[in-house]
Amino acid sequence: MAGHSKWANIKRQKARVDAVRGKTFTQLSRAIIVAARNGIPDPDGNFQLRTAIEKAKAAGIPNDNIDRAIAKGAGTADSNAQLEEIRYEGYGAGGVAIIVEALTDNRNRTAAELRFAFTKRGGNLGETGCVSWMFDLKGVCTIVGSIDEDRLLEAALEGGADVYELLDDEEQPGAEVFTTVVNLERLNTALRAEGFKVSDAELRWVPQTTVLVEDPEQSKQLLKLIEVLEALDDVQTVTANFDLADELLG
């Protein structure tokens, strides 16, 4: 059941090298709006909304901003913005597959921004479905802190997890626990009940296989592309199917 999360290590390395900022207020607020719109505007009865609010608070978004975002999603506040959830797919340098999930009120603007970002960094924006067949949509709980594997295994099995992967980082230890989409809330509850600190519970596209990147220039292009994509206000998540060679993670 155990493994090691290369993608998590890549994301951490990218954050250190590029000093990537956290999600902007706009991105996090939009996630709250959509969550409130898709379910009831009460976090106690809406897991997606509860998770979005937790992320927003962790990023320092004031409660007033959170309340306004919930009201917009519930339709109790004046707002002309009609946000759509859209998945974009494309290729990075060397043919690496990339999935971008966005919330936008203007499809044309978002597509143009993404196309420019892909092209400038050696990739290209493709058609919907061109790479998603290489990924599976999973529920993922991220745990931070030292891990007792026996306890984690017990909690993961209790929560209906498929697999967990340890984060190979002495400075920031933790683990990612994977499950089916519909089982994410149950897993989150089980892990918290066992005293684990769950920093994030999300849906994520997980690659079925990965491409090993050993060339430093290709690595720089890919990491820069992901950084540029994540900086766009309309973008919520970016996932790719590459691993970096160990010497590039140092």
UniProtKB/TrEMBL annotation:
Any one of the GO BP annotations: regulation of DNA-templated transcription
This protein's name: Probable transcriptional regulatory protein Cha6605_0144
Occurrences of domain TACO1/YebC-like second and third (ranges): 83-242
Keyword Kinase among UniProt keywords: no
Chief localization: cytoplasm
Gene3D superfamilies tied to this protein: 1.10.10.200, 3.30.70.980
Pfam families from the UniProt entry: TACO1_YebC_N, Transcrip_reg
Domain TACO1/YebC-like N-terminal residue range list: 5-75
HAMAP family linked to this entry: Transcrip_reg_TACO1 (MF_00693)
Protein source organism: Chamaesiphon minutus (strain ATCC 27169 / PCC 6605)
PANTHER family: TRANSCRIPTIONAL REGULATORY PROTEIN YEBC-RELATED, TRANSLATIONAL ACTIVATOR OF CYTOCHROME C OXIDASE 1
Gene Ontology CC: cytosol
GO molecular function: DNA binding
Entry similarity comment: Belongs to the TACO1 family.
